[in-house]
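Before relying on records like the one below, remember that each one covers exactly one chain. Contacts with other chains, cofactors or solvent are not represented anywhere in the record.
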Amino acid sequence: MEEIQSHLDHYRSSSSSASSPTSRMPSSSFFYVRKPGNIRQPISFEDSPDWEDTDAEDKVKEVRADSRNNATNPAPASLSNLNSGQLPSSSLPEASNAARKIAGASVVWKDLAVTIKGKRKYSDMVIKSSNGYALPGTMTVIMGPAKSGKTTLLRALAGRLPGSARIYGEVFFNGVKSCVPYGTFGYVGRETMLIESLTVREFLYYSSLLQLPGCLQRRNVVDDAIIAMSLGDCANKLIGGNCFIKGLPHGERRRVSIARELVTRPHILFVDEPLYQLASVSALLMMVTLKKLASMGCTLIFTIHQSSTEVFGLFDRICLLSNGNTLFFGETLSCLQHFANAGFPCPIMQSPSDHFLRAINTDFDRIIAMYKNWQDDNGELSSVNMDTAVAIRTLETTYKSSSDAAAVESIILKLMEKEGPSLKSKGKPNFFSKIAILTWRSLLVISREWKYYWLRLILCVFLSTCIGTAFWGLGHSLSSVSSRVAAIFVFVSFLSLLSIAGFPAQVKEIKVYACEESNQHSGRLVFLLGHFFSSIPFLFLLSISSSVPFYFLIKLREDFSLLVYFVVNFFMCLLVNDGLVLLVASISKSIFLSTLLLITIHMLMMLSAGYYRNRGALTSYVWMYPMSFIAFHTYSIQGLLENEYIGTSFAVGQVRTLSGYEALMNVYDISPVSGAKWKNVHILVIMALCFRLLVFVVMNRGHCSILRKRRNHLN
C-alpha cells in the first residue's frame, strides 16, 4: 500500500500542474469582475476569469496533506479558499475519538458496463466502460445529472442490480474478483423504511439482533454506531414521534438508516443520495459525519446530485457521469483542473458542483433557449451561449487523452495486482432466533401504534356494542331466529370490514421487510412467522373485547363453552382476514387502491355468504363456485349459528316442536351434525394458512429477483 500511496501522491501533484496559462490554478489575490455593461447578464462559461501563471503544484500538495489530516484542525470554508486551490473542510465532532477504527477495503472497477432492458428509449446501455477505484479511509462520490447512471453504477458495485440487468467488466475487492460477502459491506438506498414506533437506540438494537450472532456485545456495537453517526442527542427519541412528541427530522432519519448498516462494522459502505431531501445545514452535517466515518478507515462510495461548496470540499475523489459516460475520475481538485483544461474553468462565485452540472446537463439547453427568447423580447443583450452536447464530448475526449486517465489506469493495475486481506462473511443469528426477535419487535410496535391498533380496538368494541344494542330484546322465540341470524351476520361482516383500518400498518411492515431482505437481515419465512406470532395476542384481545359485549347484549345461550367457541370462531375469522390484508399489501403498496380492492373483496364475500340468499339458491358459477367457498364469512357465520341452535328446539303450538336446524332451514344453510361447528373452525384455520402461503409465494418473486441480482454480480 505504501507503493500505491506514493504513486497517488505523484498523481495528485502531476495532475494539478499546468502546461499552459489557461490551465493554471487562480491565485489567491484574484477575484471576479464582470465586464462593464453586463450587470444583469447571467454567469456563463464566457464570464470565467483568466487563469494566472502561479505555482499550483505546491498548493495542491498542501491541500491533499490537509485532507488526510482527518479534519482535526480545519480551516474555515470560504469561496476564496476554493479559488486559491484550498478545499474547505469542516470540523468533526469530538465523539469521533471514541469510535473504534474500521478496517476498510479497496474497490476497483475496470471496463464496467451495465445494460438494463427497457431502461432507456434509445439504448439499453446505462453504464459505458467505466473505470475507477475507492480506497480505505476516503470518500468517493459519483456525481452527475438525473438519469446519468449514478445509482446504476453504485448498485452494480454493491451487487444490487435488478434481474433484467446484465453487468460486464470486472469488480475487485482488495484485489480479488468476487462478490461482497455478508457483513463486509452496507448499502443504504435513497428511501429507507424505518420503524417509527421505536427509539433510535431500540431500532439499532433490534437491527443488531437480526444481523449479528448472539456471542457479540450488541449494546457496544449499537453505541459505536450511534457515536459514528452523531446520534447521541436523539438516541432515546422515537423516530416517528407520537401525538405529543415530534419525530426526528429527515436529516437525522437518514443518519439512522446509515447507522443501521454500521452495526456489522462493514469495510465498505454504499450510500445512494445521502443528501436526498436535506436542507443545506443538514446536508453539511451529514457529509461531515460521513467524513468522520471515513477517517475511521471505512471505504465510502456514494452518489450525489449536487452539493454546496463546503460539502464539495469534503470529497476525496469524484466520478463524473453523463448519460452513462465517464467524463472524469480522480481527485476533487483535479476535476476543477480538468474542466479548465477543456476550456470550461469554474467561475468565481459559483459552486463547483453547480458548474459541473451546468456544463453536462442537457436540460439546461431548453432553459437557455427560453431565457434567450425572454431576453430578445425585453431588449436584453448577450445570454448564455454554449451547446451542452459539445461540452460533454469535449470533456470526455479531453479526459481520455489526459494524464488523469493514465494515472487512474496505472493505480487500478497496481490495486488489481496486489491482493489484500480476503473479505470473509460474518456470522448470522439462527432461524429461530430471528423469529423470536421479529415477534418481540412487532409486539413492541403494536403496543405503541395507537392509531392502527388501539384505536381500531376501541372502534371494534364500540361497533359491537352498537350492534348489540340495536338487536336488544330479541328473546328466544321462533320469530326471533331471523333477527338473530341478521345480528350475527352484521357482527361478523362489519367488524371484519373494520379490520381494513390496519392496512397501512401492514404496508409499513412489508416495506421494512423488503429493506431488511435486500440487506440479508431477514427472510420470507422468518418474516411471515414473526408477523403471525405477533398478531395472535392482539387479534385474540380484539376478539374477546368485541365478542363478549355482543354475546350478552343480544342474549345468546348462557353457556360458557358456547361463549368460548364464539370467541375462538371470531378470532379465527380475524386471523383469516389479517392474512387477506397482508396478501393485498404484499401485492400492492398503494394504500388507496388496496383499500378499494379490500372493500370490494369483502362486499363480494358478504353477498355470497348465504345471508342475502341461501347458498343452495345461488348461481352455480361465480357466486356458488368459487365465491361462496372462498368467503370466510360463510364458515364463520355458519359455525356461530350451529353453536347457537344445534341441540335446541322451539315449541310450535302445544304438541309439536321444531329443532334448531329445522328453524334455520329457510334462513341459513347449516349442518345438522352436532360437531359440525368445529369443522368450520378447521376450515378457517386452513384458510388462514393458505392466505399466508400465498403471501410467501408473492414474496418469493422478489426473493428470486434478489438472487438474480447476486448471480449477475458474480458473473
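The longest helix spans residues 676-714.
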